[in-house]
Structures are given as C-alpha cells and as structure tokens.
Amino acid sequence: MSKKILLINPWIHDFAAYDFWIKPLGLLYLGGLLRQNNHRIYFIDCLDAYHPDAIPRPSRHVYGRGKFFRQIIEKPKSLTMIPKNYCRYGITPEIFRRELKNHQDMDIILVTSMMSYWYPGVFEAITIIKEELPHVPVVLGGKYATLCHEHAVTHSGADYIIAGAGENQILDLLKKLFNEDILLTPDEKNLDSYPYPAFDLIRKIVQLPLMTSRGCPYHCSYCASHLLNGEFRRRDPIKVSEEIEYWQKKHGVINFCFYDDALLINPDEMIVPLLKEIKKRGLSCQFHCPNGLHLREITEPLCTLLYRSGFKTIRFGFETSDFKKQVETGGKVKNEELRFAISNLKKAGYKTNDIGIYLLCGMPGQKAREIVESVEFVRQCGAKPVLAEYSPIPGTEMWQNAVACSSFDIQNEPLYHNNSLLPCQNNDFSFDVYRNLKKKIKNNERINRLE
C-alpha cells in the first residue's frame, strides 16, 4: 500500500537572497524515486515566486532568475549587532499554513535544507508543520542536516535527521516505519539509474536545473562537495540530452542551468558529446552556469561550441591570483590558465561582462592586497571580477583555520557561517575595506587604495 508523502522546500532567512536558478534538486530527485516506489507525492515550495497569493509578485528575468517575495522579520539574537534588515524570503507563513491544511492526510513529511546559516527558515517551517499536522512524522535532510548534523538533531524539532545522500536512507526509513516494500533502489554509482526529478510538481516551470555529475575531481580546502557527494561520478551525456529533450517537449522548457562545477572537466567525456547530441536532436536551449565552473580545459573550439549552443550565463571559479594561495586551496587553476581561457572565450564571441570570475574574499588570514591584485588581474585578462564572500564550512580542510581566526563562535552557531558577516575578517581586510572594494568594482574604478 503506497504512502502519501509531502515534500517541503523551506524558507530562506537571511540579510539578502536572490533566486539564481535555485531549485531543491535533491528533494525533487527524491520525489521522482518515491513515485517509482508507488508512493503519492505532494510538494509545498516556500520559495515559490509564482504562488497566486504572494502579492506583490516579485520581478523575474526572462531567463528564470529573479527576486523572491520577502518580509522583514526579527533578527535572531546572535545577529542583532548587524545593522541590516533580516528577511524571510518566500511565501508568507499564512499561505504556508493554508497549504498544510490541504494535506491533513499525509503519512510522512520530508523537509530539505540548504545553507547551514539558513536553518532558521527550516526551523520555522518545522514548527508550523508540527502545529498544523502534529500527527505526521517529519524527516529533515539536505546540506545543513549533513554538515551540521548534531546541531540539527539537537535543535530542529524534526523526528528524523538524515545526513548525506537521502535516497536509499528514505526508502529504508519507509520500510522501517510502514513496512513498505522497496520496489526500486537506485545504484549510487550509476546516476542514470535515478528516475527524473519530480519537476512537474513545480507550479510554473520557467527554468530547470540539470545534474550531470555528483562529487568533484578536485578537493579544494574551502569546499564541501566531497562531504556532500563522495566520489566523483558522471552521467552518460546522451542520457542527459534525453532528459533535456523530455522536459522541453513535455513542458516547453528552454532555460536550463547546470549545478555542476565540473561540467567542463574532460570535455570529450561530457560537455562536447552532450551539446553535439542536443544539436542532433534539433533542440533549442539557453544554458546558465551560476556556479563557478572549472576552466582549466577551456580551449578555443570548446568556447565556440558553448557560445553557439546557447550558454548565456557563465561563471568560473578562480578564487585568487596569488600562486601560494592557489596551491594551498587545492591547485584548481593557475593564472596562465585563466588568461588562456578568457582569450578563447573572447574569440568565441563573449564580451567582458559575460565572463564572470569568482574571487574568494575573507578567507582566514587573507590580506586586502591579495584580493585587490586578483581583481586587477581578472580585469587585465578581460573578464568581470565577482567577489564571493568566504563562508566557513564544517568538515572542510580550511575549517580549523577559520575556527582559529574568526571572532564569531562558528563551531557552535551556524548563523555565524553567513558570508554576509565576513566571519573571518581581520584588521587588514575589515568589513569597511570589503565594502569599499565592492563599490569600486561595481563602478569599474581602478583600485589604488581601499581606505
């Protein structure tokens, strides 16, 4: 006998949030798998920008990104010293309660989580669920539940907390709680054995995310990819093109975004055959890569292929032009490789403002001069520098350095992981210096001094 299962994507509570093609991909993959196991799946998206009761409707870009509906709310006590408005992004609690009242007969509720410092939105959702549906068990999974597992167990209010990949764990839990037979178990080493995500549950499909891999071939000291996904695994590019064709023909989707930093690694294994197959099938798409792609293998033919295939939004991870820091953080890319990649992108037709290069700022012990030099190097290469504020992540190689240098209690309070705080700022790279630097970058001013 199948169960009724409610999936919930909770709110974001933060000082700022913008929808750069955010979708709860893992949760919707889980929904697809549970359907294949004969369960009935329902979905409430607290970040639904198209909910008919969310008025005024936030502005959206034709590509599918845009603003969230937001409400200013009281700051957590830990953040009262920050002179900014703290907001709930997404639908109102009143709308959420009405949605829950329509799902009184659920057997179990699955709640996901994203950034560790967004947990207040998760907690608020769970609190309301417990008030409206007190008889229904709640399971919490996702990034926060994985990276801050003990904190989630102690404070979240969920009945079950799942760390890591949730697919097989959820199936086992359903068998334990309800004696439900497992009809389909995906092979974790074969990503094409997973059913498609339950994207049809989304109210209005303007864009969709694509998974081409899990994990990462690199092991950067600031990144949690290996903690969340284990070893690097890739899908068959032909299978990915089949999925793109499916969503385009069934729902008319044109805009797709890739969440995979490693999309361009070993291009002949993934991106080249994928794009050639898309062309062969006569599909017309626009692609967006808001994550920091690896650029070591950006050749001129590959850049031409990306440009002609409709890659509209491209961002690359560079982090720093300082050679010593490059080695310390994982050796992902060198200066000459960035210069070579940007040159090839320009030859293919991309303009300076099309090529966003992420630079990490606020890393433990980082000096202002290093960041300034990195900004100027990216400009000299002909691309657009984009500051990415460092967020300390438990379990990463850089974590202990962050704990040692941060003035915040980042070990015990995930709110202090928030990159808006610059948790590892120092006397040389203070918040005032950062703010001045960001202003100069925005105005495209040359940076000679930061006072």
| Proportion in helices | 25-40%
CATH class of the largest domain: Alpha Beta
Number of helices: 15
Give the termini distance in whole angstroms: 67 Å
Strand arrangement across the biggest beta sheet: 9-12-13-14-15-16
The fraction of residues in strands falls at: 15-25%
Q: Which blocks of ≥5 consecutive residues have pLDDT under 50?
A: none
Main β sheet profile = 6 strands, parallel
What's the β-strand tally?
16
3D architecture notes:
With 451 residues, this protein is of the alpha/beta class. The chain has two domains: 4-178, Rossmann fold; 206-442, Aldolase class I (TIM Barrel). 34% of the residues lie in helices and 16% in strands. The protein has helices spanning 25-36, 93-101, 119-132, 143-147, 149-155, 167-178, 225-229, 237-251, 271-280, 300-308, 323-329, 335-348, 368-381, 399-405, 431-442; strands at 4-9, 12-14, 40-45, 70-73, 86-89, 108-111, 138-140, 160-161, 207-210, 213-214, 233-234, 255-258, 286-293, 311-319, 355-361, 384-389. A six-stranded parallel β-sheet has the order 9-12-13-14-15-16. Strands 3-1-6-7-8 form a five-stranded parallel β-sheet, with helices on both faces. Helix 10 (300-308) links the parallel strand 13 (286-293) and strand 14. Helix 10 (300-308) crosses helix 12 (335-348). The relative contact order is 0.10. The model has no long low-confidence stretch (mean pLDDT 94).
